Amino acid sequence: MKIIIVGAGVAGLSTYLQLCKVLPSFDSHTVLIFESHKPRGDNSSRSSNPSLAEQQGLTDRAAIVGNSIALVPSSMRLLKYIDTRVYDIFKARGCVNESYTFRTARGHLIAVTSTGDKESPEEYTVSCPRYGLWECLHEVVGEDKIQYRTVSEVDLSGEKPVVRLADGGEESADLVIGADGVRSVVKKAIFGEENDRQYAPCYEGFCGVGAFIEGDIPEAIIKHRSMVFTFGPTGSFGYCSAAPQSQRKLGWWSNWGTPEAPDGNVMDPEEIRKQLRERHGTWKDPVIQNIIEEMDTDRIYPIWTTPDLPHWGEGGAVLLGDAAHTLPATSGQGAGQALEDSVVFSLLLAHYMAKAEATGGGLTVEEVVTLSIKGLYEIRYPRVATIKARSRNLYLTNKKIDNVVFEYMYYLFIYMWTNFPILGQLIVGTVFMDADERGAGEQVEEYLKKKGQ
Ligand SMILES: Cc1cc2nc3c(=O)[nH]c(=O)nc-3n(C[C@H](O)[C@H](O)[C@H](O)COP(=O)(O)OP(=O)(O)OC[C@H]3O[C@@H](n4cnc5c(N)ncnc54)[C@H](O)[C@@H]3O)c2cc1C
């Protein structure tokens, strides 16, 4: 079987590693990985804010490298399951957060909740620069496996999918995996004109800004080994240690509601500071005030999501990760869901391949691919839809709250879901708290059993 993976981000590279592990006779298959952008070189996740020049040309989504990412315990377990080397590197370079601290803009402490999943050994939420996760995956997969070539078009009209490259090259395959993010070329091939009309990325009514500063790690983080989230009438502000605390690398982010998507991603840092002061200048936490004065980023990110798609592939092409379901960045779950897609799809493909081999041609390669794509959607779509809905519940202040009564009602709402786990589970579920979800492997097993396959 010949497989082409478009995109060497979280979804693409974790799928490659998972296929290496589970696909029967992996060496007898050909797997090509095409990526449009070269990594920025060694230690990039450990330096300060990446310069604009370094980010030029990256896709909208991938460009937002100057920000933190956090993997919740279930995603950490999945990372370990996919490859222990990636897990070890990510954990060593990131910061293990044992709790989340929730505060109000007026300085009230709402809750300190554990991030631990109470399993043995216990996993906690790990934070790291976003680019750090890509680096770990690149290191383990190996640069020699990745071809830095941009896919310009995918043609699904023939017997087999054909991938056309911007450099004039062309490759056909039995399966094309679209792991190419929010503005996916593979998605365009699958949905044709509908892609622009009905399934183009939607602006969520939210924007974000965030980066890193170097300096002493605040007491609020050290005391409870915590990520700190503050909510107020004009948005939210968060900070965490983005590396082991000894490295003094503080990641921060601010999200706010605004009905119109800004024209571009780039803004004068002084204008960003002015806006941060307008939104958070009266907030009581001195750490927030210090970050606003110290920060030097020139990037903001409007938050885009993918509309619900009726399927995640056909004609020998499948979508994984953000290409299938870009979630609000505020959900903190996009990378974790990309990992889940990778595991579920690879297990299904391996299962149907093994079945095809065992039945001596009872299933064709096309049927193997079609069944795997269908299974992926049936297993994964409901979970992703729930996460999307819950993250919208959490960030219901996409309009300014200009009334003190509503402001306190909002704090009460946060107090309820952070202090009463059952309520929290219903309202925000895995957005901050890690649900007792079944593992990806179990979900696949259950699905296959139900289908009698
Ligand atoms: C600010 C921010 C904060 C976030 N925080 C979190 C968090 O805390 N926790 C979490 O789990 N998730 C978080 N996310 C979401 C997470 O980063 C994404 O969901 C995740 O990166 C998706 O991975 P992906 O591989 O599907 O797509 P991407 O990471 O976008 O990778 C796609 C890859 O495809 C390549 N590509 C695109 N087009 C082509 C082409 N035509 N040819 C070849 N290659 C191509 C791109 O260069 C890129 O490398 C956050 C996102 C943002 C924006």
UniProtKB/TrEMBL annotation:
Signal peptide: none
FAD-binding domain span: 146-354
Coiled-coil residues: none
Matching Pfam families: FAD_binding_3
Entry keyword Thylakoid: no
GO molecular function: FAD binding; monooxygenase activity
SUPFAM superfamilies: FAD/NAD(P)-binding domain
Entry-linked InterPro entries: FAD-bd, FAD-dep_Monooxygenase_BioMet, FAD/NAD-bd_sf
Lineage top rank: taxon: Eukaryota
Keywords of this entry: FAD, Flavoprotein, Monooxygenase, Oxidoreductase
Gene3D superfamilies associated with the record: FAD/NAD(P)-binding domain (3.50.50.60)
Record family assignment: Belongs to the paxM FAD-dependent monooxygenase family.
Protein name in UniProt: FAD/NAD(P)-binding domain-containing protein
Organism classification: Eukaryota, Fungi, Dikarya, Ascomycota, Pezizomycotina
